[in-house]
Amino acid sequence: MESRTFWHGALTIVTLIVCYGMFYMARLLIAAAADKMIETWTDERGEESSESSTEESFPILIDGETFTSHFESKEEAAEFVENLKEATYFSSIALGLFAGGALGDIFESRIVISIGLVASGVSLIFYGFLPETVHFFSKPYLIVTCALVGFFGGFGWPNIVKIVIGWRPERKSLAFTMMLFALGEYSGRSLLSDHFIHFEDYGFEFAFLAVGSVLVAYSFVIYFGIVDSVKDMSFYVPQNGHSEEHHYHFDLNLSGYQLYLEISMFSASLLLIRMVDFELFYYNPLLYQLGTVLAGITEGAISDFIGSRSPIVGILMTISLITMIAGYSGKSDASILVTTAVGITIEGAVDLIQGVIASEVGMAATKSNNINRVGLVTGIISFFGAVGLAAGRIYGPVVFKHHGFQTTFYIFAACNLLAIIVLVKRIVPDVRSFVRSVKHHFERNTASKKEDVQMAEDRF
Fold first, then answer.
1. Within the chain, which residue ranges are assigned CATH 1.20.1250.20?
2. What global pTM score does this model have?
3. Within a 13 Å sphere around the CA of 393, how many CA atoms are in the beta-carbon half?
4. Measuring CA to CA, which residue among 300, 401, 297, 285 is closest to residue 343?
5. Domain 1-44+73-235, CATH number (from 1.20.1250.20, 3.20.20.70, 1.20.272.10, 1.20.200.10)
């Protein structure tokens, strides 16, 4: 029975990792196609020769042929696309995370994820494929469809977390399992990087058609192939006694003020961490992402081993803060190591908070209210993370452009420091609890060895 449970659980986790990669690939596609969309919406050969215009399009006469530019300049088109893929998308995904988490606590999570995949895939096709195919252009239409891609894309993460919890009821290796989802991001980025260029010969719109269709198709895999919890399986046998996990894991016996304080602390901290737009600086996205995956899995394994979360988050953020302040040298080649270290440590902290810690706070809320709240709490905390990410993507490039590398890094360092301060109330008690547990474990082992020696002496 244990073997069956393990393999069903492993297959479920792999299926969810692929699903997470699908949602992530949709997000990357909107960003990857930005330059091609700008080229399509503006005519590079004759923008200065525009003689007449309407509100939405600008006819251009070149060599006896008429071309249409939807913007007066490439800069105007670039600004519109930038607002689409940053402000519109990330504000929409923030709302989707909250709504998806709430719906996941009412309905089965696999149903909510399936709806998110179908709706996000269809919206992606309507956003990038349909307008180019029928030669239709409308700014409000693009804003709405991009917002729908983000909103329904947010349905994925809170419900993925809830299903993982359903297959890890004793929280065994929970952090390690959650950190494996970074593989989904890496796979999504790798697939898009390798294959997007092949679509350029036919038109970027076919990339939207392909990715959108894959999202819709994968919804059937989730709907028919996933079970929300191991407890729903006929072969499941509850474990008697205590979990094998360390007893100083996150305390689930929280209620009222304590519970709201935990949610507020981790939401505020995640918002501040996400405002550190480290992606603004990294040089090799795939190599960086691979480093993030390996570091994240290691951090998750350590967190499970010591049985505590927030001290690891505090250590990661402290390392990134020190690296930001002490590692800056003003040289682009030296900053490669600095920004990579900052990105990996911050990504690890983000994954621990919005995955492991959010789920455990949700379990505490469920235990306190006798109503499932894992999806809602995960959605709330992830909502603030998405808001912070949107803010970082908007103000980061602006500060970088007008004030340079050093000023931007110091602002990011200030956000990082505030995030640590916010979590001090949780980190300090957890460190004390961990030290006491280690001390107690050491004393118990010492006493046991003394008893063994005394028994051996008594025999002689």
1. 1-44+73-235, 246-435
2. 0.83
3. 18
4. 285
5. 1.20.1250.20
Sorted by sequence, the CB contacts under 8 Å of residue 426 that are 6+ apart come out as 262, 265, 266, 310
Reply yes or no on whether the pLDDT at 20 is more than 90: yes
Q: Where in 250-390 does DSSP place strands (E)?
A: none
- Indicate the burial class of 68 (C-beta count within 10 angstroms; 0-12, 13-18, 19 or more): middle
Tokens found for residue 304: 């499970």
* Fold category of 246-435 in CATH: Growth Hormone; Chain: A; (1.20.1250)
- Residue recorded with tokens 């700008």: 38
Report helix, strand and coil shares of the chain as percent, to nearest 5.
Answer: 80, 0, 20
Q: What is the pLDDT of residues 195-238, one digit of tens each?
A: 665 666 667 788 899 899 999 999 999 999 998 877 766 555 55
Question: 65 forms bridges with which residues in the sheet?
Answer: 62
Q: How many CB atoms lie within 10 A of CB 125?
A: 21
Nearest-10 crossing angle of helices 257-274, 332-351: 160
